[in-house]
Amino acid sequence: MGSIAPFSMPGRFLRGNIHTHTTRSDGARSVEEVIRTYRDAGYDFLSITDHFLERFGFPVTDTRAFGDAEFTLLPGAEIHAPRTEVSELWHLVAVGLPLDFAPTSPDEDGPALARRARAAGAFVGIAHPGWYSLSLADAETLVDAAHSVEIYNHGCHVMHDKGYGAYLLDGLLDKGYRLTTYACDDAHFKAADFGGGWVELKAADRSPEAILDALKLGHFYSTQGPRIDDIEVAADHVEVRCSPASRVLVVGQGYLMSHSSGIAITRTRVSLAPLAASPWLRVIVVDDTGRSAWSNPIWK
Ligand SMILES: [Zn+2]
Ligand SMILES: [Zn+2]
Q: What's the CA gap between 266 and 24, in Å, rounded?
């Protein structure tokens, strides 16, 4: 296969956070303050995803006036409807929603709402599955609507120690569903929930349309800090170039895995022999402070 997308694509990576809240719902900072915070921290794009609920007036915030050549804003919302196995409401991130997306109707359930958001042009993410014990059976009811699973939600990690979603992503991959995966802040700015997880994405340009396309196509990886510079896939190994790492893991179906461990690894070759039976792979780069970067799933 050689070098894979997005690493093989031209241009530089754009840094973005696609899940965050403001005073339009239950966040502590205004839309303007949140935009300024991400912009000043060097991000390239942001989606404000306030809770799309009646008590907040079903907000899809119009942020177009804040975008320019250096900073792109994608309209979005965190959409909710009944119900999962153990929770009253689903939590789904919809990025690229039309500003006039119609309010949720009383008879609409989570999967129907997700399908409506996708049909309206949105990128749909399964938010923080670990935070509310979302089951594989729940997730299977919306695999035709969701593009991606949150592998890391910084706010849910900081505030609840329930930030990780790999169990759900890998369960879906094991069943043959080809979803991607992303990291985000879900910042509410009531605690230190900013800047802990984001995506690095390659798009044709910096327009909202091109970034939304790249999200849907999976032209990104996710990180808490480490950089992935390249992933080359061959028949019997994967070659990874990255910022200095302690471990480079390649995981696959069930418990199958292969790895390379050492000090300040910046280029390594990981054998795929232990993963011969897995139809998919994921590459994870871990630095010496325990922070991770995650590739999207790679199908053989
Ligand atoms: Zn949520
Ligand atoms: Zn949220």
A: 43
